[in-house]
Records
---
Amino acid sequence: MTHRHAQRLSRRTTLGLLFAAAAGVMAAGMPAAALAQPKGEVQVRIGYQKYGTLALLKGRGTLDKRLAEQGVGVKWTEFPAGPVLLEGLNVGSIDFGTVGEAPPIFAQAAGANLVYVGNEPASPASEAIVVPKGSGLRTLADLKGKKVALNKGSNVHYLLLTALEKAGVAYADIQPVFLPPADARAAFERGSVDAWAIWDPFLAAAEKQLGARVLADGKGLVANYQFYLASRTYAEKNPEILRIVLDEVAKVDEWGRNNPHEVATILSAQTGLSTEVVALAASRYAYGVKPVSVDVMASQQRVANAFASLKLIPKPISVKDALLPARQLATSAK
């Protein structure tokens, strides 16, 4: 067997597991008529952020073309950050989207009926705590008593908690300033905050355009997984559509890994950022959508426990409750 053939077989095996939740719904008693390809006005509404695989997928147009052949429309909606994207999922304005580690935990704790359907590999260098180039802050311990801008409930919220713990600084000893990325950048530029916890491509833009200095990135602190989530209702009713979506995600991941220059060009057009900024961000990204594993869920549970211990979420949660039943996974993985 050639290496290339082995890669194809490996990808098919991975996708078989990845789409287990969707396909398993069929085995759980869905009428045979529902197994046919979607027709007519069926639609998938996708929430995406300014950067990442879904932005790349939108830019390439391959998903729209493939689903159009099945009579399925695609509606793309951009969100500034994960928490608001999952608010959209919860209220029914989108069906599918991608976010970092923290937003699903806040959403689940608030009662959102969502399910994990896959994740990209860990990408710890894609988020960081930065300070202005002329700042006197040199270590994480120097954040004590300082104002730190961040998007509440986002992946960098967990990064900040973990970084402070490593430095021996209590979360109560800093002044968190909760701002979305655009407002946080403005505050950072005018010196209204001392540090900023942020993710790519905003991180790369701050480094390239503002000369921001990285105080600490996620390496050695957090995994920084990107998760694909769907409305539980949508996942149960439209498993075949989700299978196609995730198959196209896997294809664009494979393409992106091998075409960094083209990735930078497409994402530059999507984001309005320079190719230099996007290329830096893309160099830190990890491609390769996978099924949500036991280890990844254990990592998510640690994030949830950290937020619960600080009462940042209203109650402790079990992240496994946001998975489709194991029997469905087992049935479709055969």
Note: The two ends are 23 Å apart (CA to CA).
---
Amino acid sequence: MKYRGRHRRRRRGQALRATLAGTALALTAAATLISTSQATGSGTPGGLTPLTSAAATGKLRLHENLVARDTLDTLTKDMGGNVGVDGVLSTADRSMRDEADCAAGERAALPIEPTATRAYCWESGDARTRQWQPRSVTTSGDADDDGHWGEHRVILAGWTHHDDQAAAPTRDEGLARIAFVDATDPHALTYDWVLLVAPRDGGKDFAAVPSDLGGMVWYQDKLIVTAAHGAGLLVFDMHRILKADVSSGAVGRVSGGYSADGYQYVLPAIGSYDVPGGACGGEDAHTVPCFGSLSLDRTSTPDSLVATERSMSDGAKRARVWRYSYSTAAYRTGLLADSQGYVDAVEAYETRAAGLSGALSRTPSGARKADWYVGHTPDHGTQHDTLWRQTERGAKAATCTADRSHACWGLGAESLSYWQETDELWTLTGAGADAGTRRVLYAVPLSSVDGSLG
């Protein structure tokens, strides 16, 4: 899909793709191959099971709720207008470390096979990373198929507050924020924080938005993230990034202006997608699912939002993966395709890959059905994840040369985002115990992932 204000860089993109493709060939030679039919004792999830009955797909239906335009306009005007993505990046003064400068524990979280071609660690002195976990990732490669937002290449990383050791709620409890990373120069990534909020009092005030940020997709001018506890989705408009003018621990309108817990920028929600079937979760495989992760599929027609069900890694319950189509209406950029306020899943499957940690769907050229790349997190935090490629026919995963296991993917990776322009699969580590010692943002060429599967 072609979208606003592009600055085309076809030659540069082709050169970068060629470089990565060469790296991918070298990495592929290092990986050994295994298929479902060859696996013994591997715990393979097997093939995907299609869900086609109205009763099954009806549990995935969403109801769209949009905030009144007047409310959004009031808040935008009172806070001085949209500063835009460029405004946030212009003050990005925190630097990410290249892989060579990451600590040994951080590098140990990277995938074993295939290996990452790019990896970055967060600024070691950034106090805003303590008691927080990076959960999800999306990029300007999702937002626009030329990979840029204006003049920049951008990565968004969603963080949620997490402090198991706290005896009482902390100031940051219930907050959700996003790191806006300027990735225009691959050798000098910088970032700044944006707090997620919701308008209140007709746009005269705002409050913090609780979200686990397990999933996040930036498509066109909208950002869709998972809501708190996976109970639906939240929607944000990238043309309504606002600047706080008071620095304090409060969130919302204060004496003298607006405060955002010390953060400089806020992104107010413009709507939500709720599941009308009641509370999500439960042991019954046919209950309303809690959202786990999100990703974008540009190979479907139209482009679609891919979702996974939040599931326990040690559970026997099958997990679901499914998709919603994006709207093709010019006045509904970045929103899901609706019918009288409701959004229906257009494709859904069950998988035995419990403990899902991200999923990506892509239809190969000439194929009728999509391949699903599904991450699996083990039920203990000391083993690397497994990345399966599943179809209805079966599942494949790379095999680690050292121990012949499938636990070759990143340690505690929780999200997948495909950058079409560069053929890069982006994700980040940092979930689970001792997360603070192994938070890494990295990319692996998808061609390298496929090459490792045979």
Note: The radius of gyration is 21 Å.
---
Amino acid sequence: MSSDQQQPYDQGYHQGHPQGHDPGHDPYAGQQPYGVQDPHVTQTWQGQTWDTQYQPVVQPPQQQPQHAQQPQQPTAYDATAYLPPQPATAAHPLPDETPAAAPVQGGPTAAYSAPTTSGHTRLTDAQRARAEGRSPIIAPGIQPAALTAVLGVLLAGGAALGPYGLLVPLVLLQAVTAAGWFRLNGMWPARQGIALAFAGGLAADGALLAAGRENAPAAIIGTLGVWVLLTLVLQLRSHADPDERMYGLMATIASAALTIVATGHLGAAPDAVVVGGLAVAAATVARALPLPGPASVVVALLAAAGAGIAAGGFTDLGTSGALLGLAAGVCALVGLHVASYDYPSRFVHMTAGVALPLTAAAPAVYLLGRALA
């Protein structure tokens, strides 16, 4: 190809790039294109304006190559297209020369920090407490204790009105027990398990009302047996892993058992329910006071016994209410301790922390109420 044939193309190039190109110093002046045998043959240009790793194809001669100082558009092969702009004097890095990402400051052994913000491994509050030598047990606090006291007073008032007056706060207690136990075991949402456990409590209530208070043990134990069998059948239909299925089975059975056991308040003597509800209310409020651990336990038990004596004076139990109140207070503290295990969430405190003291006291209220009445 002669210089006369190259001149139109050079002129078009100069006209398309009026800026950033010095006509007096043309790097392509006097150079012939490589391998041009036919004007219709695709041309491949090699020079400082092209990436040396990848040779793009220029289809028609009318498409002029980009100038060396123009920014390159991101392409599929350009691994550095989204890197920060480089200085004009720096050479364009090759894809295999892309600098590696800077290591993240800190690591799993660094100080505790919030998750997903500094790249550190997330430590649970219980793990942090054990690492620092603190106890991973946190009591629900004064707000759940106040709700427990309110619910206990409602149970006592409902028992004084009759079985159907007691049924309304009892159903609320059973619902909170079913939801709180699943969340306490880290299973949430567990709508089917909660609904199954709550339905077991309702079935026990209905069976006890139909059979009568004298047949309360048969109604409660019979409903519990039926619900355990029903839970087994439903878990066998699950497609989860064996370990997860077994864990769900045990949690569902335990939640149903606690919900059904709470029906003991409905089967106990009304005077015993009055004493037990007030004793649990006093014990939970006293336990939530800012006192040292052993002193708080002693004060809570004394408050439960005192509430039992006071409530017994308004009922036929008399001074025997102190024993019933003390037993109900012990059961309430056990329920509080279970609800406090391993840094539970706020939802656990407001459900299991509210319901478990009263639910755990149901067997003591029923048995001692029958023995002392």
Note: Residues 1-25, 41-52, 74-82, 89-120 have pLDDT under 50 and may be disordered.
---
Amino acid sequence: MSETTTAPASPATAAPDGSEARYAALADRFRPVFERIAEGTITREQDHVLPFEQIGWLKDSGFTTLRVPAEHGGDPVTHEHLFRLLIELAEADSNVSHLLRSHFAFVETIALQPRPFRDTWFPRVLAGEIFGNAATERGGNALGTTATRLSKHDGGWILNGAKYYTTGSIFADWVVVMASTEGIEGRQYAVVRADAAGVVIHDDWDGFGQPLTGTGTALFQNVPVEESNIIHRKVTSTLEPAFFQLVLLAVLAGIGRAALRDASALVSARTRTFNTGSGGLFRDDAQIQEHVGTLASKVYAAEAIVAAAARDLDAAVDPALGLDEEAAFLRAELGVEKAHVAVPPLILEATTALFDVTGASATSRGKSLDRHWRNARTVATHNPAIFKARAVGEFHVNGTIPTGLNSIGEATTTEKGNAPA
């Protein structure tokens, strides 16, 4: 894609509003939609009903447009406000919040492209179009590369390959596909229509959690790609890795809120008790109250950590701070990596503790309380936290700038050292 002399727009935080009044207004606007989504969560998960209708409600409400810059017709919110809303949405249905991860990430990518690209794609976001993801391959690609290829054909470009973990793509209008191109260093994004000839998306995710995110296989066979829809992927200094990871942490915090909600409701309504306890109602039992209080505190801490990391993203792109690329990357990446180490254990403990507020009745399939732990455990497996902890420690000890996650593939060396970007 040719460069222009027009400078990229600042991200949507160019007009920040961090006030609680602003967030309260946003929450009032979207909570009725979230509540409507929450109503059918258990049935959808038990019957494996993909939330196409619920995504439509969010599109109609304008939720998917929240980071479009004002100069392109949007009414942008800060990162902090977006991630707080994603937490509330995840409380309603963690699958729905999770599957929008790639959509919001691509909106951020659009903002960093030359003016002609922004003028093409932001109107599509405002029109309610959704963007999915096809980055990771199941195996066979060396770390830092991809087997999916862009190649010249009859004067144009075609895309061929297979992807897995294509979260959200089955709901999307467009799929952002990571590919390699012969003769071009690094990897590119090819943006293709989800309904284009040669594109096949399967709902074949077999994980025990987050079953309704559309995470599965996408196949691309001789899919035409317009040259203007190919983006060179810059991974060394953008906020993309931090943004992608923080969405997952927001989903975890939302799962925690749902576990707390259900634990509180169970205790409040329960009339059966045990002779080994106080003999009174669970809601009046000091030990049960303490247990719920501890669960609530862990959820509160996780949510506060996610909000703090989101403020680091806002700071990284705040023009008033004037951070250069490396400083901006460090501000965002380091904050999110610390959050990545801290948040998953809090939520996994909370979703386990949920079962201890009543007794064996909590394991009833009809209650579907196990979905909170299954979903949290599944989300927490993304991007191993042990590597984040090491990177954070290395920064604080040696000043080494962390590397954001940008590639998964077959090991290319047995030597100790940094993996290829």
Note: The chain has twelve helices and eight strands.
